[in-house]
Design goal:
Blueprint lengths: L1 H23 L7 H12 L3 E3 L4 E3 L5 E10 L8 E12 L1 H4 L5 E16 L15 H17 L8 E2 L2 E12 L4 E12 L8 E10 L4 E12 L5 E14 L7 E13 L4 E11 L2 E10 L6 E12 L9 H10 L18 E13 L2 E13 L2 E11 L2 E10 L6 E12 H9 L4 E14 L3 H7 L1 E14 L3 H12 L12 E14 L2 E10 L3 E10 L5 E9 L19 E7 L4 E5 L1 H30 L1
Parallel strand pairs: 5-6, 5-7, 15-16
Antiparallel strand pairs: 1-3, 2-3, 3-4, 4-5, 7-8, 8-9, 9-10, 10-11, 11-12, 12-13, 13-14, 14-15, 16-17, 17-18, 18-19, 19-20, 20-21, 21-22, 22-23, 23-24, 24-25, 25-26, 26-27, 27-28
Helix pairs in contact: 2-4
Length: 614
């Protein structure tokens, strides 16, 4: 029992002696000038430590300091880049006996970070990893002073971990003139030494009028002894977005990534092991070379089944009606600002197992694009849809204030009826289609696209049908009226089957012109031309229909009474509501003309026979 008592007395005495040694002999403020000068040497910035460093003995031995600030470059919006209310550095006991400081844990509270960025490329990060001649001289002076005083060198300072709490981050962007505020609830770094991986974690939130963003992540980080290379592995990030501007007012985005940064070579390599945006899953990789004035980015992304329907804006017609009723005019449309296309050179390969947009379903997407000097070039875009295939290429030139574009698109073997009904809710045409179009234009304002687009192409639809009109039945009714039955009425399904429908078209000033429409079926032939106004959606087609078989059906032995008669036919109305009509008056005139010609020919034959018999 006495042994335990004396043991406790010895430990207490040693602890008191240690406190006396630390407070009377080992002054932590000896390190203050070295820290300030080391920061000046490394960054060229001014570090201010207004409060004296002091010892803390509960709950562990440590060094406390506060009211610290690190300046921003001269001329920035915020004078300071960093400000800390208080720092406590917990130190290991045994190294202190050798006058060496090993920080076991560094705690920062009340940290404020101000990151400013400017149009000319300057930012608060400038110079943080470089040294200048002035900084080198300051560092040399600090080293000589330290050696003269015989005090501890900064290289002996090791950090076992960092915990940052109650942090405010202000991001100022000169381009927008706005400052975004973020609250960093925590940032933790585990036992850290150069060249070794250490645990890293964070949690932050940002609240704005239109949305709230929450994010947290954890992984490992390694910093090379040169301080120029950083590696991050197995970094898992969970993001949550809430607000009226977010589809369904909430969205979760989770990802796992690996990153390597080499500031000497000015390169960065990123591997996206997994990306989950709600139900959308993807993975990919990206490499960045930021040594040149314009960074070069090479990336690839691979998606699984993608359904973008939940992210599409819902059309609410009542809102538009309310605004019109209240006399609230909409602002004139403006050209989108594409100047950002010059800020990076990009090469991207993208593929997706399937893409669903509302009712439109597609599969096996493949896209290859490049962005260089403000010109976006999609060299390949292919997909399978509605039992057929889409193949397209396009280019967008964003170097001028009004963008220009060109494209080439070809579809083959697509079932056109389900495509039209799913894409535009138009049940007008069926069949297997081949379609090709090339075009170019300028301006990305929707109405201007229709006005300025110049295009030409051709189409072919096989084994199809026109819905909304039964041309053979209309001809039967006309035939009945020619026979004297003026009360003949149409009956049966409004559908016209055909074996082929072909034509070519041009587009200019919002008008699509089709000069050579040709439809063939066992009963009729239809030829003609017409226009479709994309601005008003009006249709204006003038067609000629002729009977080549029996209107009573296949297998008729005798020629139809309308055989060979050109019957005027018209399509009017709009794209969504086309109207079909038969010009009965012209039909009577055509029939009368044919009968007259027939009677004349018969009279000529009789006269010829009589004259020949003389």
């Amino acid at each position: 029992m006495k042994f335990v008592k004396w043991l406790l007395i010895v430990f207490a005495s040693l602890f008191l002696l240690l406190i006396a040694y630390l407070t009377l002999i080992f002054d932590p403020n000896d390190f203050k000038p070295q820290i300030v000068e080391a920061v000046k040497k490394q960054t060229g910035r001014d570090l201010l430590i207004k409060q004296d460093l002091s010892w803390t003995f509960f709950p562990s031995i440590g060094i406390a300091l506060g009211d610290i600030s690190l300046s921003n470059p001269e001329g920035f919006k915020h004078d300071t880049m960093l400000k800390v209310d208080g720092i406590v550095a917990e130190v290991a006991l045994m190294p202190l006996l050798s006058k060496e400081v090993e920080i076991a844990q560094l705690n920062l509270d009340g940290l404020t970070l101000n990151f400013d960025s400017y149009k000319n490329g300057r930012s608060s990060m400038d110079g943080l990893t470089s040294t200048g001649e002035k900084a080198d001289k300051a560092g040399d002076k600090a080293g000589s002073d330290g050696a003269a005083q015989g005090s501890v060198q900064l290289s002996s300072l090791n950090i076992g971990g960092i915990a940052i709490t109650n942090t405010q981050v202000n991001l100022y962007d000169e381009a927008t003139g706005k400052t975004q505020a973020l609250t960093l609830e925590s940032l933790t770094l585990g036992e850290f030494s150069l060249g070794q991986f250490a645990d890293l974690g964070y949690k932050f939130s940002m609240t704005q009028p239109e949305m709230k963003v929450s994010s947290q992540g954890k992984g490992q980080i390694k910093v090379d002894p040169s301080l120029a290379k950083i590696a991050i592995k197995d970094f898992e990030i969970e993001n949550s977005l809430e607000g009226d501007a977010i589809p369904n007012k909430r969205m979760n985005i989770n990802l796992t990534t690996q990153l390597e940064l080499d500031n000497n070579a000015k390169t960065m390599a990123l591997v996206l092991s997994s990306l989950n945006i709600e139900q959308i899953k993807a993975q990919g990789k990206m490499s960045v070379n930021y040594g040149a004035k314009v960074p070069d980015v090479v990336a690839s992304m691979s998606f699984g089944d993608v359904d973008v329907t939940p992210f599409m804006a819902k059309d609410d017609g009542t809102k538009g009606e309310d605004k019109t009723a209240k006399g609230e005019g909409t602002a004139p449309a403006k050209e989108p600002d594409l100047s950002g296309m010059k800020a990076v050179n990009l090469k991207l390969d993208l593929d997706a197992k399937s893409v669903t947009a509302d009712k439109i379903k597609t599969e096996n997407w493949l896209m290859k694009l490049t962005l260089k000097n403000g010109v976006l070039d999609v060299s390949q875009l292919s997909a399978e849809l509605y039992q057929g295939k889409l193949l397209a290429s396009a280019q967008l030139d964003g170097r001028k204030s009004v963008a220009s574009y060109r494209f080439n698109k070809k579809i083959s073997g697509i079932k056109v009826r389900p495509l039209l009904t799913d894409a535009a809710e138009v049940d007008m045409l069926a069949g297997t289609t081949n379609f090709e179009v090339t075009g170019s234009g300028h301006s990305l304002i929707p109405d201007n696209i229709k006005r300025n687009l110049d295009a030409k192409g051709q189409f072919e639809i096989a084994d199809g049908a026109l819905y909304g009109v039964n041309i053979p039945q209309m001809l039967r009714d006309a035939k009945a009226k020619l026979g004297g039955n003026l009360n003949a009425a149409s009956s049966g399904e409004k559908k016209t089957d055909f074996t082929s429908l072909t034509g070519s078209f041009t587009m200019a000033k919002g008008i699509v012109n089709n000069p050579d429409l040709n439809m063939a079926s066992p009963l009729i032939r239809l030829q003609g031309k017409g226009n479709v106004n994309l601005l008003s959606e009006a249709i204006d087609y003038a067609l000629k229909t002729s009977v080549v078989g029996s209107l009573e059906g296949q297998g008729g032995a005798e020629k139809d009474v309308l055989y060979g008669v050109e019957i005027p036919f018209a399509i009017a109305g709009t794209i969504s509501e086309p109207k079909f009509s038969l010009d009965t008056a012209a039909l009577f005139e055509s029939k009368l003309k044919k009968e007259t010609e027939k009677a004349t020919d018969e009279l000529k034959d009789k006269l010829f026979k009589k004259l020949g018999g003389l």
